[in-house]
């Protein structure tokens, strides 16, 4: 994910929240955050300092785990939300919230006539429009937004290229058309379609689509008398400039009682998926796809029903790890640490895992606690873990692990789908009618989990680092 | 040839989280001639993050100059200025 000011602002907010938590002043000072960030006289990003502060207040609300549209009274201070969050025991089912005051900045009609319009005699924009949406005023064309259906014919037909296309970034980024405008112009997410890929979060230039963070719930867990266990996704290996052992040690020092690598669960995924593959090929099944990317499996469930029989039944590394951890800690709190929204949703659905922290949230907690990962005390790595399991988060890593396990017992014709978009979804849909491969790895994010929607490191740098870990493991 | 210009990128956690991670690909944005004249290294903490008035993270040190809120383009410009090249 490319770093931009919207991303950095979110990290700044997370850091401030965590700092206040660790100093015990969260309730007391949380309402100061928007003011501290936008004091009088500073440059603002929107119309005025008050609008900026209101936006920041809503962003904090999302980070405290609330749905912005549930707000009843605009005067409710953030400290009240902190109080509510401290008492809550349930997470909200829908992982995203749209910050309305930040959104609605985008156009309803994607086409705009610029003043390059010459008001020509031919007026092909007008004659090509089937909806009668073009009218002329003062010698220039205009688009009637009530009539326009965004077909784009006027743009195609203008000989002067005077009509431009203005995208709505989140809608354009969504591969399954799950986000769209309401009457008032703000965006709404349709969870019957959403596959939790996180593209809307990443693509919104205002940072208006936000995950409801579990950070408050993790703080609550730290304050409880239960143990708190971190289960850390293998993509973490590429997130900081430090060896894996140091990263895990640093996570432990945030207040966790134990840290378990999710690569441990990946060992089981590899083993069972290899077995399942051999079995299915012997039964004569055409092909099998991996199942460890929850965004892909959501896409199958909601959009590619004909693919259901071909998806592996094997559990994901996170699910296996949560089973192992639950056995060891039957009554304690299990927190998954991962790279993306899809994994947040998977955590929510899992019967063993309780909470989720993203890499970005973990990073912000490090900053708040003054932890420098490189100089943290290292944790001993679990030597029983197969090195290929630590390679899962990079595209074709799962394939490599499973293929090595199959070890030639049946023939493998691999195909790697590296990133899901509209075209790839279409391609997948056609597989039951004929697929050149018999084993298909699918990752929703290009490059793999190292390019999840809330990672810290540049995905290429992270892949390299993960590759080193696998090689040296 | 004269001594190479040192470019030290902070890889401390604070800088890394606040956008410094992206600076790991700095070299891809520099011409081979410039890469030849500089020495890129990492530092576990440039000790700027805990000083008032040092500006905001991420930090990069070019020669003896500290760049705050460092981005790829800011660092590229600063290197060119130090080296006196276009
Ligand atoms: S972490 Fe970069 S200066 Fe300290």
Strands ordered across the widest β-sheet of chain B: 2-1-3-4
For the largest sheet of chain A, list the strands in their spatial order. Answer: 10-9-12-13
Terminal-residue CA separation of chain A: 27 Å
Sheet with the most strands, sense and barrel status of chain B: 4 strands, mixed
What small molecules accompany the polymer chains? FE2/S2 (inorganic) cluster
Can you give the helix content of chain A as a percent range?
Answer: 25-40%
- Termini separation of chain B (Å)? 20 Å
Largest sheet of chain A: 4 strands, parallel
- Classify the fold: give the CATH topology of the largest domain in chain A: Rossmann fold
The number of distinct β-strands of chain A equals 15
The class by helix and strand makeup of chain A works out as: alpha/beta
Number of helices, counting only DSSP H or I runs of 4 residues or more of chain A: 19
Brief summary of the model shown:
The complex is a heterodimer of chains A (473) and B (86). Chain A is an alpha/beta fold.
Which structural traits does this protein have?
heterodimer, A: 473 residues, alpha/beta, Alpha-Beta Plaits, Rossmann fold, 4-stranded parallel β-sheet, 3-stranded parallel β-sheet, 19 helices, 12% strand, B: 86 residues, alpha+beta, Glutaredoxin, 4-stranded mixed β-sheet, 4 strands, globular, binds FE2/S2 (inorganic) cluster
């Amino acid at each position: 994910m490319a770093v931009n000011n919207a991303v950095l602002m979110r990290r700044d907010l997370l850091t401030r929240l965590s700092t206040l938590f660790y100093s015990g002043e969260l309730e007391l000072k949380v309402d100061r955050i928007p003011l501290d960030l936008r004091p009088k006289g500073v440059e603002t990003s929107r119309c005025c300092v008050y609008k900026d502060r209101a936006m920041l207040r809503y962003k904090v609300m999302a980070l405290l785990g609330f749905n912005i549209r549930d707000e009843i009274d605009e005067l409710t201070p953030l400290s009240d939300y902190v109080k509510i969050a401290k008492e809550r025991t349930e997470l909200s089912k829908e992982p995203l919230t749209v910050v309305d005051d930040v959104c609605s900045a985008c156009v309803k009609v994607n086409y705009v006539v610029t003043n390059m319009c010459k008001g020509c005699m031919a007026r092909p924009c007008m004659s090509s429009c089937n909806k009668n949406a073009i009218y002329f005023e003062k010698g220039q064309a205009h688009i009637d937004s009530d009539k326009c259906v965004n077909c784009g014919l006027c743009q195609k037909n203008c000989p002067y290229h005077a009509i431009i296309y203005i995208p709505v970034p989140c809608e354009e980024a969504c591969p399954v058309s799950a986000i769209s405008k309401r009457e008032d112009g703000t965006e709404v997410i349709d969870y019957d379609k959403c596959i939790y890929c996180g593209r809307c979060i990443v693509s919104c230039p205002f940072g208006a689509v936000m995950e409801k963070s579990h950070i408050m719930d993790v703080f609550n867990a730290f304050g409880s008398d239960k143990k708190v266990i971190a289960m850390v996704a293998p993509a973490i290996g590429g997130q900081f400039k430090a060896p894996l052992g140091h990263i895990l040690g640093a996570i432990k020092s945030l207040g966790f009682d134990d840290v378990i690598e999710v690569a441990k669960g990946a060992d089981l995924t590899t083993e069972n998926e290899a077995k399942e593959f051999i079995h299915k090929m012997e039964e004569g099944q055409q092909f099998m796809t991996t199942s460890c990317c929850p965004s892909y499996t959501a896409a199958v469930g909601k959009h590619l029903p004909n693919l259901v029989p071909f998806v592996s039944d094997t559990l994901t590394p996170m699910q296996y790890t949560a089973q192992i951890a639950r056995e060891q800690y039957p009554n304690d709190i299990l927190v998954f640490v991962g790279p993306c929204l899809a994994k947040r949703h998977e955590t929510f659905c899992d019967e063993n895992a309780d909470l989720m922290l993203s890499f970005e949230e973990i990073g912000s907690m490090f900053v708040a606690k003054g932890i420098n990962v490189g100089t943290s005390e290292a944790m001993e790595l679990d030597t029983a873990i197969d090195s290929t399991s630590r390679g899962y988060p990079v595209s074709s890593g799962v394939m490599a692990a499973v293929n090595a396990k199959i070890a030639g017992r049946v023939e493998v014709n691999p195909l790697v789908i590296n990133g899901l978009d509209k075209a790839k979804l279409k391609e997948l849909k056609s597989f039951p009618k004929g697929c050149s491969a018999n084993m298909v790895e699918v990752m929703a994010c290009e490059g793999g989990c190292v390019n999840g929607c809330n990672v810290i490191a540049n995905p290429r740098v992270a892949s390299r680092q993960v590759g080193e870990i696998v090689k040296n493991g | 040839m004269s001594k190479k210009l040192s470019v030290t990128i902070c890889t401390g956690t604070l800088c890394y989280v606040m956008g410094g991670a992206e600076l790991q690909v700095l070299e891809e944005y520099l011409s081979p001639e410039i890469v030849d004249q500089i020495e890129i290294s990492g530092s576990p903490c440039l000790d700027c993050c805990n000083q008032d008035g040092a500006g905001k993270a991420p930090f990069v040190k070019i020669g003896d100059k500290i760049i705050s809120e460092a981005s790829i383009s800011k660092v590229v410009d600063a290197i060119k200025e130090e080296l006196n090249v276009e």
